[in-house]
Amino acid sequence: DFGPTLAAEKLAERDGLRVSRETLRKWMSEAGLWLSRKQRRTFHQPRLRREAYGELVQIDGSEHRWFEDRGDPCSLLVFIDDATGKLMQLRFVRSESAFSYFEALELYLKNHGAPVAFYSDKHSVFRVAKKDAKGGQGMTQFGRALCELNIEILCANSSQAKGRVERMNRTLQDRLIKDLRLEGICGMDDGNAFLPRFMEGYNRQFAITPARPDDLHRSLNLAPDRLKEILCKREQRYVGAQLTFSFERQRIMLEETEVTRGLVGRYVETYAYADGRLDVRWKGHSLPYRVFDKDQRVTHAAITENKRLGDVLAYIKARQDERPAPKVKTNSEKIGYRPRGRKPGKRTDFMTDPAVVARRRQALSQQSAVEQGQPYPAQFNGE
User: Fold this and answer.
1) What's the pLDDT tens digit per position in 33-74?
2) Among the four given CATH numbers 2.40.30.20, 3.90.480.10, 3.30.420.10, 2.60.40.4070, the one describing domain 57-206
């Protein structure tokens, strides 16, 4: 499995055989050990469009500098109908996450209704990457919400399989960016307000007529509160002996009531909303609680996907700016050294001090007398 370049380097390094790369490439091709770029090329056959409007909607997110140097980079969520090539929903978000897709999905459902299926990539928002996951019933939060809304989610095996939305991303990175520049838009809020007008003009010019005239979107007969309960993060948490459980690196303590006393050793359901609210429920009833402690530090060595890296780094930077700057200790402070107060002025050289010199001479004379066997002077007897 060595390529010609690496094989030529190793032959020269290990065996002393110097062969040109192109000669070695020719030999390897003749021996069937190497295929040219043309021979290695794979082809993806084009897939016919779906026949009806609302039968399949491709979704994807594209991270880009949409506002060029006028604003920070962000992601654009794109919903495109497979049968007509019509832009169904566009939304600027900080990054691709379950909450951002919930927000875009809510707008889609209110404007168009529920399609038959969504077609996406293998992003962790849509698909559980870990096959042997212990919790979650084998589906993501977005997949669970679609299941309750009776909408199917399909994941493409390659980017070519969802080529329509991929090509749409490249088109938007050309057309949309220039329109945003002409409008002088510099942020996500103004951009989201402009997107409906952009979609209307684009669809009027480029959308095509489907093979069948049917509209397979279904209306949702759901109350707004019910839809918000579906489009949120719902998980189960085990209640410990102290009526506490962990949630998002926080310790949640249930207030002691007649209901919560019997929940030790049971599972409660948490409803986390995009605005930061958390609702704890048991059999549909909300339970009072308080946050016992907080630790908003990102887990050390946490696995972070490329599409969420920018958002995570921004969160880390904000948390670091909130903390006071660490004080760097000097070596003297580390060992506990405290400077002794000295009088101002030139320091005294004790080795030339007459009193010190006299005492030193006296000590040397005493040592010499002892060595010669002479008794101490009278003033030193008994010392």
Assistant:
1) 888 777 777 655 566 788 999 999 999 999 999 999 999 999
2) 3.30.420.10
Side chain identity at residue 167, one-letter code: R
Cβ burial of 42 (10 Å; 0-12, 13-18, 19+) is exposed
- How many helices (H) and strands (E) are present in the chain, helices listed first? 11, 12
Q: Considering only 51-65, 109-123, 125-139, which range has the smallest mean pLDDT?
A: 125-139
Q: Quick check: 253 and 289 in contact, CB under 8 A?
A: yes
Measured CA to CA, the distance from residue 183 to residue 191 in angstroms comes to 10
Distance in angstroms (rounded) separating the CA atoms of residues 255 and 243: 8
- What are the CA-CA distances from residue 248 to residues 118, 245, 296, 305 (Å)? 29, 10, 8, 18
How many angstroms separate the CA atoms of 253 and 264, rounded?
Answer: 12
Residues of the chain within CATH 2.40.50 domain(s) are 232-294
Nearest to 80 by CA among 199, 179, 220: 199
- Give CA–CA dist 354/348, Å, rounded: 12
- State how beta strands 87-93 and 267-272 pair: unpaired
The answer to whether the predicted template modeling score (pTM) of the entire model surpasses 0.85 is no
Both structure tokens of 206? 């480029």
Cα(309)–Cα(307) distance, rounded to whole angstroms?
A: 6
Angstrom CA distances, 31 to 24, 35, 119, 304, 313, stand at 11, 10, 43, 44, 50
Residues of the chain with CATH 3.30.420.10: 57-206
| Crossing angle between the packed helical segments 163-183 and 188-206, to the nearest 10 degrees | 120
Contact between 47 and 161 (Cβ < 8 Å): yes
CA contacts within 13 A on the Cβ side of 311: 16
Exposure of 55 by Cβ count < 10 A (0-12 exposed, 13-18 middle, 19+ buried)?
buried
Q: 10 Å Cβ neighbour count for 57?
A: 26
Fold of domain 232-294: OB fold (Dihydrolipoamide Acetyltransferase, E2P) (2.40.50)
